[in-house]
Specification:
Radius of gyration: 29 Å
CATH architecture of the largest domain: 3-Layer(aba) Sandwich
Shape: elongated
Structural class: alpha+beta
Number of domains: 5
Strand order of the largest sheet: 11-10-16-7-8-15-12-13
Largest sheet: 8 strands, antiparallel
CATH topology of the largest domain: Rossmann fold
């Protein structure tokens, strides 16, 4: 059968899942009773937010000029956090549909995905969606797309994914323009892992594309990177429901079940070969997914610790890029150090834990992975402030640098440049399009993860979009800021910061904390410190009883004596008094720190 493997790439909410729905409705093997909106988005969270989190696939059958064709749509996530998954999904394709919203035009992730597809030398079919909306500006979007792709505007298709207008022409263009998979049908088996996930009944389900040869049920296979061997129990395709087959041959995309117990055994991007084939080479592009952002997750109710561990266990079964390990804090008790691909990924995990397991977490301020070189020349990765060695043993710090690409309407360019400069950014490129501008900056990753997205949206009145990629680690002047309450260090509030921001950030943090700590009978001092040096200090005045109220007349020395006695009592109280910071205060403080 003639095979076409394609992906639909687009910015968030440009209609990718809706277009896939129309194609499945017309050419998929699915009854109208089972058809629903966003059929490839299986999670409620994906439907609500209009984003794709897990890659899915579907096999469509159609005929053209008397021949039968099998079109495999490999769905891809749209957000920057999942860029590795996008590159792996695109590697399994021979062409892409580049989908652009007629009302919003080209956006950062559209351009980023286009560049990935271009690097992989894939055939690109440009499509403009939502052409039937009153606010659609099809002509200027067409001009931008033809400039980006360096093609004539007549080659760009217009569709309405909602109504199905133009979908038949798109299917024809896929058949005529997208090349067949280039594989050796009679060669040794070589398959590519597009994705893998956990199923309660089947164990790990692996989504694969057969590059060369063929795979059959009962074959003994080997995963290239870890050399683990398995026997294939089931094979099949998604139409979009699971349909079993006995074999998958070169060019086909389908699922494999082989009694695999953990996601580590079948990493995304890895190569599957027959176990007897010892001379095989791996397919290019595979790399181990490394979390970029770390945060402490502490159950709000400390009795939920075991339940939280079970919940995070189940989530990590379904998401190889999410990592966690137990950690404890003097202030917050027992919790977990969790690693994420980015802030959206972190938000999704937190929301899934809340919805699916009804658990509330207190989250510490997110931090990135720094590198520290000590005086012996050894380099260590630092994921949390408490991992930092003494300042005396540190030779230098290295922080991760991201190349960020921002697409914004031209009238907001000034405020976007101002924002990037304030975040220690270095401008690298500026391209003007019809009414938009694309600007590239190198910015430290730590400056992006706090409030960059919200500030960017404010600066551009909600129109700007961005995409980033970590390119390097560079030497930088970093410090660890500790918060002391009554001379005691609160470990959960420590942060690693750039030296230039330390005074401002220190002042902000202690002022925020001052509003949240309940007043005591004695004065409480709050300090922001770097080592022994105090950067900022404030205090919460203690309650004072009017000890002289009962006096009536008499010598003034009686009054002075009582005030002196009170002063000494307060001094003693301050020395031995313990300031208990309530968990609610931590919750509020860490919530405001993240914003």
């Amino acid at each position: 059968m003639n095979i076409r493997n394609i992906a639909i790439v687009a910015h968030i909410d440009h209609g990718k899942s809706t277009l896939a729905d129309r194609m499945i409705e017309k050419y998929g093997n699915i009854s109208s009773r089972k058809m629903k909106e966003q059929i490839l988005d299986s999670m409620d969270l994906e439907r609500e937010r209009g984003i794709t989190i897990k890659a899915q696939t579907v096999s469509l059958k159609t005929s053209y000029q008397g021949k039968d064709f099998n079109i495999n749509i490999i769905d891809t996530p749209g957000h920057v956090d999942f860029s590795y998954e996008v590159s792996r999904s695109l590697s399994a394709c021979d062409g892409v549909i580049l989908l652009v919203d007629a009302t919003q035009g080209l956006e950062a992730q559209t351009i980023a995905h286009f560049n990935v597809a271009k690097d992989l030398d894939l055939k690109i079919i440009p499509v403009i969606n939502k052409i039937d909306l009153p606010s659609a500006d099809t002509e200027s979007v067409k001009k931008d797309l033809s400039d980006l792709l360096e093609i004539h505007s007549s080659e760009i298709l217009n569709v309405s994914a909602k109504s199905g207008l133009g979908v038949d022409q798109l299917i024809e263009k896929i058949i005529t323009d997208i090349p067949e998979p280039k594989g050796i049908i009679n060669g040794e088996l070589k398959a590519f892992i597009i994705d893998s996930w956990f199923d309660n009944y089947l164990g790990i389900v692996v989504l694969i594309k057969i590059i060369d040869g063929e795979i059959a049920v009962k074959d003994k296979i080997k995963v290239f990177s870890n050399k683990r061997e398995f026997i294939v129990d089931k094979l099949g395709t998604f139409n979009p429901t699971m349909t079993n087959t006995s074999t998958l041959t070169s060019g086909q995309v389908g699922f494999m079940i082989a009694s695999i117990k953990t996601l580590d055994s079948a990493p995304v991007g890895d190569t599957v070969i027959l176990s007897k084939n010892d001379n095989a080479t791996a397919l290019p592009g595979f790399k181990k997914i490394q979390p970029r952002v770390y945060s402490g997750f502490y159950p709000v109710d400390s009795n939920d610790y075991q339940e939280s561990k079970k919940a995070l266990d189940k989530l990590s079964l379904n998401d190889n890029s999410f990592t966690y390990e137990p950690e404890s804090s003097q202030s917050l008790g027992h919790g977990f150090r969790c690693g994420f691909l980015g802030l959206l990924h972190m938000e999704i995990i937190r929301e899934r834990v809340q919805r699916e397991y009804n658990l509330e977490f207190l989250m510490t301020v997110p931090s990135v992975t720094y590198r520290v070189e000590n005086k012996k020349g050894e380099i260590n990765d630092i994921r949390k402030p408490s991992d930092l060695p003494d300042d005396n043993s540190i030779k230098c710090y290295y922080e991760p640098i991201a190349l960020i690409s921002i697409v914004t309407p031209s009238q907001h360019l000034g405020s976007v440049i101002e924002l990037c400069t304030s975040k220690r950014g270095i401008q690298k490129d500026l391209i003007y399009r019809s009414n938009m501008a694309e600007i590239k900056y190198e910015i430290p990753l730590s400056e992006i993860i706090y409030d960059f997205f919200d500030t960017l949206k404010s600066a551009s009145k909600g129109y700007a979009s961005y995409d980033y990629d970590i390119i390097d680690y560079r030497e930088s002047k970093m410090i660890r800021l500790d918060i002391h309450v009554n001379k005691k260090k609160i470990d959960a509030l420590s942060q690693i910061l750039h030296k230039d921001n330390s005074y401002r950030r220190s002042r902000e943090l202690i002022e925020n904390l001052k509003k949240l700590i309940p007043r005591q009978s004695f004065e409480i001092t709050i300090q922001g410190c770097v080592g022994a040096k105090i950067l900022s200090s404030t205090s919460i005045k203690g309650y004072r009883k009017d000890v002289t109220a009962k006096l009536y007349g008499g010598d003034v020395t009686r009054k002075m004596k009582l005030l002196k006695k009170q002063k000494e009592g307060k001094k003693k109280m301050k020395k031995i008094g313990n300031v208990e910071i309530p968990r609610e205060a931590f919750y509020k403080f860490l919530s405001t720190s993240e914003e």
